[in-house]
Amino acid sequence: MNQEVVKRRLSSEERQSEIIRVSIELAAEKGVDSVTTQDMADAMQLTQGSIFRHFATKDDIWVAVVVWIRDRMMKVVGKAAAEASDPLDAIERMFNAHIAFIGKHPAIPRLLFSELLHKKNSKLRQLIEGIISGYEAKIAGLLDEAKAQSLVSADLDSQSAAVLYIGMIQGLVMQSTIFGGKRALQQQAEKTFPIFLHGIKTRSSSI
Amino acid sequence: MNQEVVKRRLSSEERQSEIIRVSIELAAEKGVDSVTTQDMADAMQLTQGSIFRHFATKDDIWVAVVVWIRDRMMKVVGKAAAEASDPLDAIERMFNAHIAFIGKHPAIPRLLFSELLHKKNSKLRQLIEGIISGYEAKIAGLLDEAKAQSLVSADLDSQSAAVLYIGMIQGLVMQSTIFGGKRALQQQAEKTFPIFLHGIKTRSSSI
DNA sequence: ACCAAGTTAGTAATTGGTGACTATCTTAAT
DNA sequence: ATTAAGATAGTCACCAATTACTAACTTGGT
User: Fold this and answer.
1) What ipTM does the predicted assembly reach?
2) What CATH number corresponds to the domain at position A50?
3) In chain B, which among 141-160 make CB contacts under 8 A with chain A?
C-alpha cells in the first residue's frame, strides 16, 4: 500500500551537492532572492533545519552555488577554446559552448548577472566580479592575439569588443527569458553571432 | 536650538512622486528586492505606515516606478530619434540618449533587466516585457528602413541585430556596475557603438 | 562475526527578527 | 470645522537559525 519511498540518508558531501543543485533549479524558477531554505528543503523532501547541518548560513549556499558554476563553466568553455585553430575560432567555440551551457542551466546567467552583483555581501560580489572580469579579459586577450595575426581590424578596441561580446550573451538570455525557451536561445544565438563577428573584422579605414 | 525643519505636508499626488523618486534612488543603492517601505519612509522623513496612504500595496509602487521610467524613456529616446536624418542616425542618437539617461538614473537598467522580470506578478512583468520588446521592435524597424535605403547589409537579420543592440546596452551597464561610475559608462559606450555599427554594415557576400 | 559506543544526518519545535499592511488617533491646511 | 496627511502602535505571516532529541550508519574491541 504505502509505497514508502526509500529515504536515503546522504553523506554531508552528497547532501551539499543536492542543495546546490536544487538551489540553482529554484533560482531559475522564482529568482534568487525569493528562494527560502524551506523551499530548498521541500524540493529535497527534507526538513528546513537540516539544511544547516551542511551549510552554516544561507549565504554560504549561494557562495557554493557560484563556485560550482564557475568551475563548470571554466571547464566547458576552456575545453571549447582548447580545440580551436585560431583566436577567432576560439571565441566562436567559447560562445557556442557558453550558449549550450546556458541552455542546460537557464538559471546561471540570472544568478551571475545583476541580482547577486548588487549585494553588499562582498564575498559573493567579489566572486562574481572575478568570474565576469576574468571572462572578459580572456576574450579581450584572444582578440589581441587575433589582431596580431591580422584576423581582425588593427584599430579594434579589444576591451570594448569584449564588452559587446558579453552583452550579446546577456541580450540573448534576456530575449529567451521573455520569449520562449532554450530552443529559441540556440537559434537566436546562431543568427546574432555573425553580426558581432562582422563587427570586429577588418573595417574600411574610416570609423 | 532645535532648528525644526519645516515639515511640509504634501498632497497625495506630490507624495506619490516623492515615493517614486526615492524608490528609484534606493533601488540603485541596494537593489530592488531589498528596498523596504521603511527605507522609503526614512528617505523622506516619514513614517512607514504613511506610505500606504498613497499606495495600496508595495507592488503598486513598483508599477508606478516602471510606468514613470517608461514614460521618461519614451520621451527622451523619442525626441532623439525625431532629430535624426536617417534610420542609422536615429539608432545612434537613440543609443546616445539612452546612455545619457542611464547615466542620470543608474538604477533604471537594474530595474528593467532581470530583477523584476522574474516576478510571477504578471502586471509588472507584462509592463517590463512590453517596454523591452517594444524597444527592440523599434530598433528592428529602423534597421529594416535602413536596409530599404541600403544603409546596412541587405542580408542583415534585423531582429538579431536589435538583440545585439540591447545586449550592448546591458553589457555596458554591467561593466560600469562592476568597475567605476558613469564617466566610464559614457566613454566605454563611445568606443563600443562603432563596433556594433560596423557589424550591421554591408558585408562581403559570405556570412 | 558481533555488538556496544561513538558519530552524523535528520526531525520537530521554537526563537528572534523583519516586513507588509491596518486601525485608530492627531494635526496641519484650507 | 472639516478633511486629508501624517503619527502611533499594533497584527500577522514569513524566514533564517538554533536546540533538544532520534534514527541510522560506522567502527573498534572482543
Assistant:
1) 0.88
2) 1.10.10.60
3) 156-157, 159-160
